[in-house]
Design goal:
Blueprint lengths: L3 H12 L5 H7 L24 H14 L13 H12 L2 H22 L8 H12 L6 H17 L2 H7 L1 E2 L19 E2 L1
Parallel strand pairs: 1-2
Helix pairs in contact: 1-2, 1-7, 3-6, 4-7, 5-6, 5-7, 6-7
Length: about 190
């Protein structure tokens, strides 16, 4: 089976040069690491990155980016814990600023517009808040959204759920059939 670091390197290749720095560092795409670093998936974060309100907002927003459908969503895949671990152990303090500032700006917008915290907003309200951030209509929103989206996607597709339930792992996908009907393709394969 493919390990998380190998999968993360594949995700890094997917995003190319615009990869959020902690993801590039964790995938080994930012050059050689001069000091030993712990594996991403081992143990809790070395330090708390978020306040309770920021953690709740971050958790709710991860599920809006990759919601539960016929496959488990971001929360079930452990994406919020992955994000906090990655930011605690693989990012410099300055690299956390866009994520933390973005969560605070979204929280302020949610309180101003809906009079409820981001975590308690309805899914439609959370989607609206993410759309405002994505379109740069919230202070620091574009920077936050791009980095946050990358963290969610990387966390999901390198998790066991992402690799085994959302995608299907086949080391050798089978024989070639050039006339296979596209309508019969069920899942995207990863190797």
């Amino acid at each position: 089976m493919i390990d998380r670091r190998t999968a993360l390197a594949g995700v890094a290749a997917m995003f190319g040069t615009a990869l959020y720095a902690p993801l590039a560092r964790a995938a080994g795409a930012s050059g050689p690491v001069t000091t030993p670093v712990p594996a991403i998936s081992e143990g809790p974060p070395s330090a708390a990155v978020f306040t309770g309100a920021q953690r709740a907002a971050m958790t709710a927003l991860t599920e809006r980016i990759l919601p539960t459908t016929d496959t488990p969503g971001a929360i079930a895949a452990g994406v919020p814990q992955y994000i906090e671990k990655l930011l605690a152990d693989w990012s410099y303090p300055a690299e956390r600023v866009p994520i933390i500032a973005g969560l605070d700006a979204i929280e302020a917008k949610s309180m101003a517009d809906y009079r409820v915290s981001t975590a308690k907003a309805t899914p439609a309200q959370q989607d609206a808040l993410l759309t405002l951030a994505m379109n740069g209509q919230i202070t620091g929103g574009k920077t936050f959204f791009e980095a946050f989206r990358q963290l969610v996607i990387a966390g999901y597709y390198t998790s066991e759920i992402g690799m085994t339930q959302e995608r299907e792992y086949l080391p050798v996908p089978g024989e070639y059939d050039g006339a296979f009907p596209y309508s019969k393709v069920n899942k995207v394969y990863s190797a």
